[in-house]
C-alpha cells in the first residue's frame, strides 16, 4: 500500500506541475481546435506527451520493482492518449463550460493517475 501511495503521490504532483506550472498561456490557448489555427494538434500533442513523460518518470521507479520497458512504454502511450482525449473533450465543450468543465477535466486526470498507479504497483508486484 505504501508503494501505491508513493507512486500515486508522484503522479499527482507531476500532473499538477505539467498541467499548471508548465502549461503556459500559449499552450492553453492553442491546444484547442477552436483556437483558429491549423496547427492546434501539434500543441495538444506536445502538452499530452509532457504528461506521458511524467507518467514515465513514475513508471521508471516501478522498473526497479520489476516493471518492464514495454509496460513503461504502454503507460506513456496510455497517458498521452488519455490526456489528449480529455483535453480535447474539454476544449470542445463536451464537459460544459467554466468551473464545471474544469472540475470534470481535473477529476478525469486524477482518476487516470490512480489507474496508472494501480497498474505500476500491480505489474511490479
Q: What does the model show?
A:
Pfam families: DUF3307 (PF11750). This is DUF3307 domain-containing protein. InterPro entries: Phage_phiKZ_Orf197 (IPR021737). The structure is a single chain. The chain is elongated and about 45 Å long. The protein has helices at 2-21, 25-30, 40-63, 69-91, 98-124. The model has no long low-confidence stretch (mean pLDDT 89). Helix 1 (2-21) packs antiparallel against helix 3 (40-63) and helix 3 packs parallel to helix 5 (98-124). The protein has one domain. It starts with a helix and ends with a helix. The protein contains five helices and no strands. With 125 residues, the protein is an all-alpha fold.
In short:
By secondary structure, this protein is mainly alpha-helical. The protein has helices at residues 2-21, 25-30, 40-63, 69-91, 98-124. The protein is built from five helices and no strands.
What is the H-and-E element order? HHHHH
What kind of assembly state do the chains in view correspond to? single chain
What is the tally of beta strands? 0
Distance between the termini: 11 Å
The helical percent reads over 70%
Proportion of strand residues: under 5%
Uncertain residue ranges: none
Number of domains: 1
Overall spatial form: elongated
Characterize the main sheet: none
* Rg from alpha-carbon coordinates: 15 Å
Number of helices: 5
Average pLDDT score: 89
What class would the helix/strand composition place it in? mainly alpha
Amino acid at each position: 500500500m505504501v508503494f501505491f501511495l508513493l507512486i500515486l503521490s508522484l503522479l499527482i504532483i507531476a500532473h499538477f506541475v505539467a498541467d499548471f506550472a508548465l502549461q503556459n498561456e500559449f499552450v492553453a490557448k492553442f491546444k484547442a481546435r477552436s483556437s483558429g489555427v491549423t496547427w492546434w494538434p501539434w500543441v495538444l500533442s506536445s502538452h499530452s506527451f509532457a504528461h506521458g513523460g511524467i507518467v514515465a518518470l513514475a513508471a521508471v521507479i516501478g522498473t526497479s520493482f520489476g516493471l518492464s520497458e514495454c509496460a513503461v512504454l504502454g503507460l506513456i502511450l496510455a497517458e498521452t492518449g488519455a490526456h489528449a482525449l480529455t483535453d480535447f473533450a474539454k476544449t470542445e465543450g463536451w464537459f460544459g463550460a467554466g468551473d464545471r468543465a474544469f472540475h470534470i477535466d481535473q477529476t478525469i486526470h486524477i482518476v487516470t493517475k490512480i489507474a496508472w498507479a494501480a497498474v505500476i504497483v500491480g505489474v511490479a508486484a
